[in-house]
Every structure is written in structure tokens, then in C-alpha cells.
């Protein structure tokens, strides 16, 4: 059988369960996952040495519909994710969205130096203005929002990526 006629292997299993409107941090800035279905795109990740960089997000595809949850963080950002979506906690452990609790601390995609205080300026969310920077993404609300479409994918090398919500997610096993 000629190579061009060989069937493609199935994509690797994914731990990502993003709602259509969930934003990922891509090389082009925040992008809704639904707009990336069937495409390949570099996304923000953290390497083993702690440095930030980009790796290819591949096999972006719609999965079966599932339970969706809306998360709110201390910076007043929202994201909708499937209940089985895997997030990385501040201490490096992992948690499924359905098991999150208010007050849980998630691994942040970016941070300031310890002791930094954002200015009391309109550009910053009211919850972070004029107070010392918290190096974690702190969950302030978790609520079920019904069922809906979910998207998954893989990330080369690190298998992790950042949501525009600020938190690190694990893409695959």
C-alpha cells in the first residue's frame, strides 16, 4: 500500500476537555479552542528547567459531549472546562476539574518576582490592584453549567500547556 493511502493512526488519548470558548495561550495570543480544531499551533508551555516556551499542539479535535464546569479565579477570569479536564496544582500534583474546591491553588503560567505589587490602575482586575502578587492561580468559584461540546489535543514534548485563565493543564498521559 502506498504511504499516501495508509490510514492515519488514531490520535493519542487526551486529558484535555475544553469547552468551545476556552482560550489557550498560543503563539498568536489567546485563541478559542474551537477555532483550532483540525489545526496545529504552538502553545505556551513550561520546560523541565522552568523556562517558558512553545511546543506544538496537535490532533486538536472535538470529543464526546460531557459535563462542563465554569471556574472563576481571583483575577476575575473565567473558563469553562469538562469535569475530567486535568489541571496542575501549585505543588505539581494534578486535579480533575470536577474535584476542584474553592481556594485550590493552581500552577500559574506566568508570574512576577516575589514581593511585586501591581499598581492600583484600571488595567488590572480590582482583585489584584495594589496588593502583593500571588504566584498561584487561586480558584474562587466552581459551578456546573450543564453538558456541552468538549475539545482535546496533544502537546509535543512537555505534554502540558497554559490556558488564558492562567493555569497549567496536562494534555496527555
Write up what this structure looks like.
This protein is mostly beta strands. It has one domain (13-170): Endonuclease - Pi-scei, Chain A, domain 1 (Beta Complex). 0% of the residues lie in helices and 44% in strands. The chain starts with 22 loop residues before the first strand and ends with a strand.
**CATH class wording:** Mainly Beta
Count of individual beta strands: 11
Strand content: 35-45%
Which fold name is given in CATH as the topology? Endonuclease - Pi-scei, Chain A, domain 1
> Architecture, CATH level 2?
Beta Complex
Estimated radius of gyration? 17 Å
Give the class from helix and strand content and strand pairing: mainly beta
Number of domains: 1
Task: Specify the biggest β-sheet.
Answer: 5 strands, antiparallel
Mean pLDDT: 90
Poorly predicted regions: none
Helix run count: 0
What portion of residues is helical?
under 10%
Q: What's the N-to-C terminus distance?
A: 32 Å
Describe how the helices and strands are arranged.
Layout: E1 23-26, E2 29-32, E3 41-46, E4 52-73, E5 78-82, E6 86-88, E7 94-96, E8 105-107, E9 136-155, E10 160-162, E11 168-170
Amino acid at each position: 500500500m502506498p504511504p499516501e493511502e495508509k490510514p492515519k493512526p488514531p490520535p493519542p488519548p487526551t486529558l484535555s476537555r475544553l469547552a468551545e470558548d476556552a482560550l489557550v495561550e498560543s503563539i498568536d495570543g489567546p485563541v478559542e479552542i474551537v477555532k483550532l480544531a483540525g489545526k496545529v499551533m504552538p502553545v505556551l508551555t513550561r520546560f523541565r528547567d522552568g523556562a517558558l516556551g512553545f511546543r506544538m499542539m496537535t490532533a486538536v479535535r472535538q470529543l464526546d459531549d460531557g459535563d462542563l464546569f465554569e471556574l472563576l479565579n481571583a483575577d476575575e477570569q473565567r473558563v469553562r472546562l469538562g469535569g475530567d479536564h486535568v489541571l496542575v496544582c501549585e505543588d505539581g500534583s494534578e486535579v480533575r476539574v470536577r474535584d476542584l474546591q474553592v481556594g485550590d491553588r493552581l500552577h500559574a503560567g506566568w508570574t512576577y518576582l516575589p514581593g511585586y505589587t501591581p499598581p492600583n490602575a484600571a488595567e488590572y482586575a480590582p482583585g489584584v490592584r495594589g496588593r502583593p502578587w500571588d504566584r498561584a492561580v487561586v480558584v474562587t468559584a466552581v459551578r456546573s453549567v450543564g453538558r456541552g461540546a468538549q475539545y482535546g489535543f496533544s502537546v509535543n514534548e512537555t505534554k502540558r500547556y497554559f490556558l488564558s485563565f492562567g493555569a497549567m493543564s496536562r494534555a496527555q498521559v
